[in-house]
Amino acid sequence: MAEVSVADKLCNACASGNTADVLFLIENGADVNGLNSFNRTPIQVVKLGKPSLVEVLLEAGADPNMPDPVLNLTVTHDAARDGHKDTVRVLLDYGANPNMVDDRGNLPLHLAAMGGHLELTQLLIGCTLDPQTRNGQGYTAAELAQHHGKTDVFSFIQHYLGAH
């Protein structure tokens, strides 16, 4: 059986949310931007519900804007899609770009709105250069919210756009 690489150990610790192991590995020279055997960085596989762990990685120099090699998703896309507002806030505080698009042309705002994550939509809309950007299928974040029955998110975006 082959020995597990340091990058795989760090990614495994990140995915399981084991902050103690992550800190130990980083303190002992693990590369926070190193690729595991699935061609992912630690921040791309981190347990999104642990914003403090995301912050540990970012403080150690992890790149929050590294896109996933398959769908071109950043960790901000993943956190926005899954409704992890505190994690998105930490990512933005450390330089995550909320204006990057995935392979379908979605901004994190599109994914938050489609998922009905109102507070996250409220956070992202002010950071998005053009909240009326259309994704690759031609939909705005508001249209995605409406299409998916997320009426509170749709109403908020409509009100926001009317006020700006």
Task: Describe what this molecule looks like in 3D.
The protein is mostly helical. Helices cover 52% and strands 0% of the residues. It is built from ten helices and no strands. The chain has helices at 6-16, 19-27, 42-45, 51-59, 75-82, 85-93, 108-114, 118-125, 141-147, 151-163. The longest helix has 13 residues, at 151-163. It starts with 5 loop residues before the first helix and ends with a helix. The model has no long low-confidence stretch (mean pLDDT 96).
Cα radius of gyration in angstroms: 17 Å
Globular, elongated, flat, extended or rod-shaped: what is the shape? elongated
Strands, count:
0
In the predicted model, the low-confidence regions spanning at least 5 consecutive residues are none
Number of helical segments with 4 or more residues: 10
Class derived from helix and strand content: mainly alpha
Short description:
With 164 residues, this protein is mostly helical. Helix content is 52%, strand content 0%.
Feature tags:
164 residues, 52% helix, mainly alpha
Ordered list of secondary-structure elements with their pairings:
Elements: H1 6-16, H2 19-27, H3 42-45, H4 51-59, H5 75-82, H6 85-93, H7 108-114, H8 118-125, H9 141-147, H10 151-163
